[in-house]
């Protein structure tokens, strides 16, 4: 729906929180969003008065208001806690559905294309991770949606390789996602439906596997299995924590839908992605992670605010011919100077030069010092996941 189609009186209401560092307390507000002109208004719940009069804010869209996400309003990170009224809940809950997509890729050479595929088809990526299934985990997951016969049929495919799992959100998500899968016969899919998920992404016809949630009830059960509180004890982490560097793709790239292009560029550069996961960082996590860079960043809180402004994607990166010192040093050169304006002059084809536009919005963070590579990977793929 475009702006012209919105009713002038239509407004959505959300309960949000702001952590006030100076006062060391959480302030609660109601944030009203008017899609007709992308304006906002805020109400102070405790003081019972208008905090911010209605004002245009073109940098934000209705799709940014996801429960659990953070939006930045005039440099303040606001955590979206819940819907603020029954109207908003009824409109948005009924409008959007969630579904799980699971794909086994034989190599990660098509991972960037997979991101592009789901984004180009209008899906919002809510959660994402790479996983390695044990036989037991594969058995338990498949038994949610498959018969005993099909569970035994697919178990070895699910536990035999690297799996990428996505929680996707969209109107009519379950039906639309299943319509994109293509035939279960992988040979038929590649010949007659080459643009389907099975037809394009499954290159190993013997071991390939694709699954999408079959209905909303199963979707929630599958998502909880894959991303719930017990998920980390079910799956083997694929990070190596050795001879590695960390790449953290920043929220502005995900909002622009460019993550697939950056992943493809990294893979074409000869690098391997050992582990990958989407994170929604909170202020404390982002501050802790960036603490070692505090003296090097003249606008430290701007960097923190960028990391908490939306989802980011962490990747452990390695190279088959590089040791610990080499991988950090060479990958840092590969992505380009921290300041994109400088990079555009001397390394115009570097990732930051192409996709970044200032010191804060420079596409991605990468490890700066060789000895910090395993430590930064451990922070995301061990500490934050525990």
TrEMBL record:
This is Nucleoside diphosphate kinase. Signal peptide: none annotated. GO terms for cellular component: axonemal microtubule. PANTHER family: NUCLEOSIDE DIPHOSPHATE KINASE 7. It is found in: Cell projection, Cilium; Cytoplasm, Cytoskeleton. Gene3D superfamilies: Nucleoside diphosphate kinase-like domain. GO terms for molecular function: kinase activity. Residues 8-96 form the DM10 domain. Belongs to the NDK family. Keywords: Cell projection, Cytoplasm, Cytoskeleton, Kinase, Transferase. SUPFAM superfamilies: Nucleoside diphosphate kinase, NDK (SSF54919).
């Amino acid at each position: 729906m475009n702006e012209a189609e919105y009713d002038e009186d239509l407004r959505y209401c959300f309960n949000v929180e702001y952590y006030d560092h100076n006062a060391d307390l959480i302030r609660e507000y109601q944030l009203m969003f008017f899609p007709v002109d992308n304006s906002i208004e805020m109400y102070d719940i405790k003081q019972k008065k208008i905090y911010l009069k209605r004002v245009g804010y073109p940098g934000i869209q209705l799709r940014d208001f996801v429960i659990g996400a953070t939006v930045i309003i005039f440099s303040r990170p606001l955590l979206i806690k819940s819907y603020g009224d029954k109207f908003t809940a009824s409109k948005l809950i009924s409008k959007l559905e969630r579904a799980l997509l699971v794909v086994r890729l034989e190599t990660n050479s098509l991972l960037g294309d997979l991101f592009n595929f789901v984004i180009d088809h209008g899906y919002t990526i809510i959660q994402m991770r790479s996983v390695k299934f044990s036989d037991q985990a594969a058995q338990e997951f498949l038994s949610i949606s498959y018969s005993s016969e099909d569970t035994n049929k697919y178990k070895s495919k699910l536990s035999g390789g690297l799996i990428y799992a996505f929680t996707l959100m969209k109107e009519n998500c379950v039906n639309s996602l299943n319509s994109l899968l293509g035939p279960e016969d992988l040979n038929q899919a590649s010949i007659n439906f080459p643009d389907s998920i099975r037809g394009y992404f499954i290159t190993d016809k013997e071991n390939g596997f694709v699954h999408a949630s079959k209905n909303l009830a199963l979707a929630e059960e599958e998502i909880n299995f894959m991303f719930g509180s017990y998920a980390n004890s079910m799956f083997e982490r694929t990070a190596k924590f050795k001879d590695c560097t960390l790449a953290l793709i920043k929220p502005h790239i995900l909002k622009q839908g460019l993550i697939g292009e950056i992943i493809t560029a990294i893979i074409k550069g000869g690098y391997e992605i050992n582990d990958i996961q989407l994170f929604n960082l909170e202020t404390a996590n982002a501050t802790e992670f960036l603490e070692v860079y505090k003296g090097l960043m003249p606008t430290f809180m701007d960097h923190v605010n960028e990391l908490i402004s939306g989802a980011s994607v962490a990747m452990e990166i390695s190279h088959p011919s590089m040791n610990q010192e080499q991988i950090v040093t060479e990958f840092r050169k590969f992505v380009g100077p921290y300041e994109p304006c400088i990079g555009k002059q001397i390394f115009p084809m570097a990732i930051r030069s192409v996709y970044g536009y200032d010191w804060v919005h420079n596409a991605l963070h990468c490890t700066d010092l060789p000895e910090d590579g395993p430590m930064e990977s451990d922070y995301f793929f061990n500490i934050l996941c525990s």
